[in-house]
Amino acid sequence: MEQESNSENSKRCYLGLGGNLTNELGTPSQHIQTAIESLQAHPKITQVKASSLYASKPMGPQDQPDFINAVVEIDTTLTPHDLLSFCQQLEQQAQRVRLRHWGERSLDVDVLLYADEFIDTETLKVPHPGITQRNFVLIPLSELNPTLAINKVPITDLAQSQDWTGLTRLP
Fold it and tell me: Second label for 143, Cα 20 to 30 Å away, from 1, 34, 50, 112?
C-alpha cells in the first residue's frame, strides 16, 4: 500500500470523518473541522491533510439528514488502538450519542487504514470493513492519495467503480 511515512517510527494512516447532526457545539462541517484541529494539535500526530467535504445520503435508515464526510491523512506514532481511542475521544468531544446502528450522529471518526497493517481485533478492524463499497470514503481517499492501494487494488480503480449517486463535493 506504500503508506509508510518519512519518520522512522511514524505510520501513515487514514481516518474517515462524518456526521449529520447539529448540536450546541456546531454543524456537521464544524464538528469535522474541530476534529481536524484536534488531530493537528496532538503531539503524536503530524502531517495532517484533509480531503474536500462531501455530502452523502445516509447508508442506513433514510429518515435522517444527509451526512457530511471527509477523509484525513495523518502520520502518527500512536499505536492502532491508541489512535482508535483518540478517535473515540473526538466523537465524545462532539457529544456523539449512539441512537441506532448507522443512525444519525454529530461525529463519527473511523480508522480506515493504518500503514500497511491488517488488524482484526474485537474493537478494531483495519482496513475498515466496507471501505471498498463506500463512495464517501473512496472518492476523498483517492483525492488525498491517488497512488494508494487497498488489498493491492489501486484506489483510483476502486473510486472509479463507485456510483456517485447521492454524493456531492462541497465548495
Answer: 34
